[in-house]
Amino acid sequence: MSKHFRLAPLAAAMACACAHAEEPVITPPATQVAQVERIVVSGSREATSLRATPAAVERIDEAMLDARRPTFIGQVLNTAPGVYITDLGNEQHNTSIRQPLSYQAVYLYLEDGLPIRPVGLFNHNALYELNLASASAIEVIKGPASSLYGANSVGGAINLLTAAPSEAPELQLGIQRSNDGYTRAEFDASNNFGAHGLRASGYVGTQRDGWQAHSDADKRSLSLRWDWQIASQLRLKTVASYNYLDTDMPGSLNASDYASRPAFSPNTFTFRNVEAMRLSSALESRWRAESLSTLTAWWRDNATDQLPNYLIFDTGASTASGRTTDQHFRSLGVDLRHREDVARTLRLIGGVSLDHSPVDAREDNLAITRDPASGRYTGYRVVSARRDYDVTVHSAAAYLQGEWRPLRGFTLTAGARHDDIGYDYTNHLTPSATTGAASGSRDYSHTSPSIGAAWDATRTLNLYTRYSQGFTPPEVSSQYGGALATPDLRPAVFDNIEAGARWARPDHRLSAELTVYRLAGSDEILSYTIRPGVSEPRNAGSTRHVGVEFGSQARLGSFEAMFSGAWAKHRYGDYRPSSTLDFSGKDMPGAPRLLANAELAWLPGAHARIALEGQHVGAYWMDNANTVRYDGHSLAHLRASWREGGWEIFGRIANLFDARYAEIAASSYTGSGLRAPDKQDTYTPGAPRTFFIGLRYHFGGTPPDASTTETAQTHNDGVRS
Q1: Cβ(186)–Cβ(171) under 8 Å?
Q2: CA 525 – CA 519 distance, rounded (Å)
Q3: What is the predicted pLDDT for the residue at 3?
Q4: How does strand 376-407 pair with strand 346-371?
Q5: What digits encode the pLDDT tens for the residues 262-293?
Q6: Which of 8, 100, 271, 448 has its CA 20 to 30 A from that of 290?
C-alpha cells in the first residue's frame, strides 16, 4: 500500500457527517453532595458518579496529562492501579490489565466509547491509532466489560475521551525534543461560534538516529471535533481522526546481544506503515427530562502494511525466510441507544449496534539474505504469494442495563449484551496448507451478563462488588491463519468476580482504593502441535487470574504523592498444546507478580512542579514450562515544569539511573519448519537514560495549575472544567 496520505476519502466522508454529544451527570444522592464528585463515563456509557459505579474504573484527567506531557500513552496509563503498557518503540506496545503481557485479543480500545477497530481484527499496538493530543481524559475499565461494549473487553477497556470545544478562543502550541533524536510539535486550537463549537488538535513526531539501530519513525495525528447545539433539546457531535505511523522495526535481541550490545539490531529493512482514519457522528435528543436518545454512526478506513521482524526465520548461516503482510479494512456502523428514567430510583439504558467491515489481506513469502559476520539481514526478494483473501466481518448486538437505587447511597446494576458475529471468507488462491482453506462462512454468538452493587458505607467510604462475563471470538487470523481446513472454533469465555473499596476525604486531598478480583477463562484458543512443524488452533485452554489492585493519593501542603500497583497470579488451568506437552498449573509467561508505580512531587508555587517517579516491574517466567526467568526491573524518572503567563517550559529525564532492562522478555522456539526449531531467549531492550526538553505557549483559557489532584467535576463529553 502507498505510504502517502489518503486524505481525499476522509474529506469526502466528513462532508456527510452527523454528530454526537452526551448526557450530563446523574444527580448524586444527598450523602455525596458535600464531597467533590469524581465522574466517570465508561462504566455505564453515561456520566455517572464513581461512587455509584460498581466497577474498577480509573480516570487519567486533564491535570495528569498536562503535568506529564506524555509522548507515549503508557507514560500516563501506567500510573493506574493494575495497568502496565510496555514501550516497544515509536508508540508500539502491548498491555497487561488482569492478564499477562501478551499479544492476545483480550483488550478493547475505544474513542468516545466507540471501538477503534472491528471485532476479529485486534492489534495489540492499536493505541497508536489514537491521537493523544486530542484527549481531555482517558478512562480504564478493569475486568470484563462485554455487557456494554461487546467482544475483547476481557482484561479491560481503554477509552480516550476527546476534548470538547472551548467557550472562548484557545490556542496551545508546543514543541519538545530529546537528546536521542526525537522531536515532537503539537497544537490545540478551539473556539465557540454561537451554536457551533470547533476544536482541532494534533502533533507531528519524528525519530531519527536514535540509541537503537534501525529505529527511525514518523508519526502524524490530527483530530477535528465539531459540536452543534441545534436546539435546546437536540445536539450533534462529530469527531474525525487521522493517524499515520511509518516506523522501522528493530526487533528483539538474543541473550548475548542484549547483554553486550543492546543498541544492536539485526534488521535493516523491517517496517510497519499504518494509516487509520475514523469518523464518528451522533445525534442526541432529550425528548423530555426523563429520557435521552442517541443515534451514532461511524466510518473507519484502516490500512497496515508491514515487513515485520517477528516473521523473519533463519534457515541457514546466510539465508532466512520472511513475510510481508498487508491488511486493509473499511467499516460502516451504527448504534441506537436510549436511556429512560422509569422512576426516580430506576434508570434503564438499552440499545442495538451494527457493524459491517470488509477486509482485504495479503501475505508474500520472502527470501532473505543474511551476513554471517555481522548477524544482520541485508536484503530480500519476494518469491511467492502466501495468502490473498477477503473477509467481511459483520456483527449485530443488543444490550440492556438497569440501575436501581432503592436506598440513599445504594446502587444496584444489572445488564446483558447479546452479540452475533459472522465472517464471510473468500480465498483468492488455490486452497492448501499454506494458502488457506476454501471460501466459506463462520458465525458466532454470545450473551454476556453483568451484575453489581455499590454502597456508600459512610460519607467517605464506598464499597462495591461485581460479577461480569467477557468473551473473545476467534480472530480472523486464527480462523483463517493458513490451513487446508478451517478450524471449528468457539468464543473463549471469561468469568470475573471482584470486590473493592474506595475511600476519600471530602476535599480529596487524601484518597485510597483497593480491589480484589478473580478472572477465570475457559475455551481459550491455543496453537496445538499435531506433529513437528504442523499445528492448528483449538479451544483447549483455560486460565486463572487472581489479584489485588491498590492505589492512593495525598496532597499535603506543597507536596503531592501517588502510589499504585497490583499483586497478581496468572496461571494455566488446563493447558496442553500437544500430546506430549502439559503446562497445566504452571504460571503464564510474561506475568509479573508485582507492579508498582510511585511519585513524589514538590509544588513550590502554583505554576511550578518537580516530580520524581519510581516504577517497578516484578520478576516473571519467560516460557510456558517455567524454566527461564526475567528478574524484573525498577526505573526512576524525573520531571519538572514552570509556567509564567502563557509560556511554559518543561523537561524530564527518563530512566534517570540508566538501568539496563527489557520492556518484554520471552523464551520460545524459533524456526520456519525448514529445520528443527531452536529454543531461544529474546529481549526487547528498554531505552537508556534520555533527556527531554519542551516549550509550550497557551493563549486564552485557564491552564490548570501544577497539581494533578482532581478537584473539579468533569463532564462525559470532554468539557474541560
Answers
A1: no
A2: 16
A3: 39
A4: antiparallel
A5: 999 999 999 999 999 999 999 999 988 889 99
A6: 448
